[in-house]
Amino acid sequence: SAYSMETLMPMQFLLPSVKYCPPLADAVAKYMLNALSSFQLFFAKGTEPLYETKAELNAAIPYEKLEKIRDGHMPAACGDFWGHRSVYGAGYLSWLDALVTETTDSNIYAYDLSITDWLAERVYPVYLLRNPYGKAINVSFFPSDIWENKCPELYKGNHLQDVCLWNMQNKQILSENAEKLSVTLVEGEAVIIALLPKGVKPEKKGKMICAGNVELCAEF
């Protein structure tokens, strides 16, 4: 069986872990894409409707789990107890607006590695993106609105102002002074990028790459 809450809940821990262990980047990006693309199954949806055990209940709430086979149907959206729908699991869906940002390509997302980094005293936006294609591709995206409050120095009004987008692996600037963030990903590449105020450069401090006193990610 696969459970809806257990599919969503690890995201808050997996994403910031990539900052401290960059070799996890590819695996975590694959997990995120697979979880997001298949989560519709918990709503008994897919390329065709799934068999579901409580179709009369609120369709806005996902089922608790998926089973390989139930009542002769394969697969099936169901649950362990009477309700079968997972209100507690659905609560984690509200996090996705901050954790996951759509890009200009429907199969590539910008995953926020900082927003649930609970132990960090201060953070800048750090993102993980992965190119699943067999060719290079350029994508663009906007940071989640939550960063306007967390890092107001990156904004003027409601727009990004005097910012630089950095590649953490080679510490090179990807773009400057853009309202929309843009990055070119090579074939199969998982990349960690950071959004910093103009004039602030990532530097190695011990085992970490930092911007001033703010830890961005571990040294590659």
Describe the structure in your own words.
The mean pLDDT is 94. β16 and β17 form a beta hairpin. The chain is of the alpha+beta class and 220 residues long. It contains six helices and 17 strands. It has a domain of 120 residues: Immunoglobulin-like. The protein starts with a strand and ends with a strand. The protein has a six-stranded antiparallel sheet with strand order 5-6-7-14-11-12. Strands 1-3-4-2 form a four-stranded mixed sheet.
Short description:
The protein is α+β, with helices and mostly antiparallel strands and 220 residues long.
Proportion in β-strands: 25-35%
Q: Going across the major beta sheet, what is the strand order?
A: 5-6-7-14-11-12
Count of distinct strands: 17
Gross CATH architecture of the domain at 99-218: Sandwich
Here the CATH topology of the domain at 99-218 equals Immunoglobulin-like
pLDDT below 50 for ≥5 consecutive residues: which ranges? none
CATH superfamily of the domain at 99-218: Golgi alpha-mannosidase II
Order of helices and strands: EHHHEEEHHEEEEHEEEEEEEEE
Report the mean per-residue pLDDT as an integer: 94
CATH class of the domain at 99-218: Mainly Beta
Rg on CA atoms, Å: 19 Å
Biggest β-sheet: count, sense, barrel? 6 strands, antiparallel
Helix proportion: 10-25%
Which class of secondary structure composition applies to the elements? alpha+beta
